[in-house]
Amino acid sequence: MRTAFIETLVDLASVDERIFLLTGDLGWTVVEAFATKFPDRFLNVGVAEQNMAGIATGLAQAGFVPFIYSIVTFASMRCYEQVRNGAILHELPVRIVGIGGGYAYGHAGPTHYGLEDLSIARTQPGMTVIAPADPAQTRSALRTIMSVSGPVYLRIGKGGNPEVPGLNGRFALSRPEVVREGSQALFLACGNIVHDALRAAHLLSEKGISVTVAIMAHLPFTASFELIELLSRFPFVLTVEEAYAVGGLGSLVAETIAQSHLQCHLCIRGVTKNFSCESGSESYMRAQHSLNAEALAESAIKLLMSPKDD
Fold first, then answer.
1. Residue 219 CB coordination number (10 Å)
2. What is the CATH code of the structural domain delimited by 177-304?
3. Per-residue confidence (pLDDT) for residue 310, from 0 to 100
4. Within the chain, which residues score under 70 in pLDDT?
5. Which CATH architecture has domain 2-156?
């Protein structure tokens, strides 16, 4: 997904001289494609993410569309106050790009687990929050956000993220994208963890349980018509996110169900435990937090067996 991002950014920058890329001394072997072609619109600020956010704010005020590039934990938290007081409060087109959400940097340990970012970003009115599911959707999302006038938080995978079958790069703000049709329940996911949701749906199909799988790559501040329409079709909904279970996709769906008076039984699947000293691959950490396909399938079965309202 990083490669898809930088290739698309280079294409966009070739026709839009407002695009400027800043990095906090990382992204090497990725950002060179931009830095080499547009040296006057690239800046490595060093390990100084707060300064990077301030510089991006100034560039945006001067008419540029700056992209801040850093690891999720640094992009979302280390310069949060500067992004809030600059890009958000002044409604400027700063794009914060967080690399490797969830447990993508699992071997680096808890300091690199990107679990708060979606909640933190979605808290702020005016911030557009997007977590694409695969490289093709990353390309589509990046092109779409060029028309967004305010700040954007874009969470993309670290690498090795396969294409999602049936998605074909589809992306639109506020719109869930269905990639598997079913009738009994809905899996709604954001980010590349949708692959585990799809595998869970396959496991359930072997037990005669039919599940729709959809991707909600954009997490709006308030519910969208498209999301309400999709949720209204299902009595059972299970959300899946490689992030804390509070404030992100699950919270968006819970708010939508409550505010729209929908008759959905909801199960929110995300990280519910505090940081531990464990580290390991992304797949290992997902299994430890019951976010792998097998655990998601078990959660769906329990949800389907929950008492019905009279």
1. 27
2. 3.40.50.920
3. 43
4. 275-276, 308-310
5. 3-Layer(aba) Sandwich (3.40)
For the chain, the domains span 2-156, 177-304
Three-class SS state of 265: strand
pLDDT of residue 74: 95
pLDDT score at 293: 98
Per-residue pLDDT tens digits for 17-51 = 999 999 999 888 899 999 999 999 999 999 999 99
**For the residues of 70-100, what is the DSSP string, one character each?**
EEHHIIIIITHHHHIIIIITTT---EEEEES
The pLDDT of residue 159: 82
CA atoms of 54 and 244, how far apart (whole Å): 28
Closest CA to 236 of 211, 261, 217: 211
Q: Is the dihedral of CA 185, 249, 220, 135 positive or negative?
A: negative
Element (H or E) spanning 271, and its range?
Answer: strand 265-271
Q: Residue 57 has which token pair?
A: 């704010």
Residue carrying structure tokens 């008492």: 307
Q: How far is CA 59 from CA 8, 55, 95, 118, 303, in A?
A: 21, 6, 12, 25, 49
Burial class of residue 148, CB neighbours in 10 A (0-12, 13-18, 19+): middle
Sequence-distant (6+) residues with CB within 8 A of 187 are 197, 200, 201, 211, 212, 213, 214, 238, 240, 296, 300
